[in-house]
Design a protein that fits this description.
Layout (H helix, E strand, L loop, with lengths): L15 H22 L12 E4 L2 E4 L1 H22 L3 H25 L6 H30 L13 H11 L4 H7 L1
Antiparallel strand pairs: 1-2
Helix pairs in contact: 1-2, 2-3, 3-4
C-alpha cells in the first residue's frame, strides 16, 4: 500500500543554481550561528553583536537570539532546497521579501537621526542587491513552487465554428436550422 502520493508525480529537475543557493544558505546559517556564540576579543564595556531584523536594531543578548533564529531559518531553507521541497523555496522567498521590507523600514525609521546616517547609508546601499537576489530567486523558483504546466503542452482549442454547431445542435428547437446550416 502506497502512502506517498508525491512519488507518483514525475519529478522536475531543479536547476543547479538553486542547489548552489542552498549551499550558500547553509554556509550563511553556520556563519550566523558562529557569530552568535563566538566573542571577538575581550570587550566588556560594549557587546559587539548587533543585528537588524524586521527593521529593528537588536544588540547584546537580544541580537544573539535573533541571529540564532535567522541561522535556523537559513538552515531550514537549505534543507528544503536540498530535499527538493516547495516549502524550502517558499520560505526563502518569504524571508527575502522580509529582508527587503526590513531594509526599507530601517532606512525610513532611522533617516531623521543624523547619528544613524552612516548605518542608513550602508543599509540603503545593500537594498538594490537584496532586491535583485529576491527577484532572481522568484524568477528561478516560480515554476517549481506553483507547478504551472509548461507552455509547449498547450491544449488544442476547438474552433469557434465547431463550438457554435454543438451549441445549436444541443437546442432541440434549432434542430432544423442546424440541418440547413450543415
Amino acid at each position: 500500500m502506497k502512502t506517498d502520493h508525491q512519488s507518483d508525480l514525475p519529478q522536475v529537475k531543479w536547476p543547479l543554481d538553486l542547489r548552489v543557493f542552498a549551499v550558500m544558505s547553509a554556509l550563511w546559517a553556520a556563519c550566523l550561528a558562529v557569530s552568535a556564540f563566538v566573542h571577538v576579543g575581550e570587550m566588556e564595556v560594549v557587546d559587539p553583536v548587533v543585528t537588524i531584523f524586521a527593521g529593528v536594531r537588536f544588540s547584546g543578548d537580544d541580537a544573539r537570539l535573533v541571529l540564532i533564529v535567522e541561522a535556523g531559518i537559513f538552515a531550514m531553507i537549505a534543507l528544503g532546497v536540498f530535499t527538493h521541497r516547495r516549502w524550502g523555496l517558499l520560505l526563502a522567498l518569504c524571508y527575502m521579501v522580509q529582508v527587503v521590507m526590513s531594509h526599507l523600514a530601517f532606512a525610513v525609521a532611522y533617516l531623521p537621526f543624523p547619528s544613524e546616517w552612516m548605518h542608513v547609508r550602508a543599509v540603503a546601499s545593500e537594498g538594490p542587491i537584496v532586491v535583485l537576489v529576491t527577484l532572481y530567486l522568484w524568477i528561478r523558483a516560480c515554476d517549481l513552487i506553483f507547478d504551472w504546466p509548461p507552455a509547449n503542452d498547450a491544449r488544442p482549442q476547438a474552433s469557434p465554428k465547431a463550438i457554435h454547431r454543438s451549441s445549436v445542435r444541443a437546442d432541440s428547437r434549432a434542430l432544423d436550422v442546424a440541418a440547413i446550416a450543415d
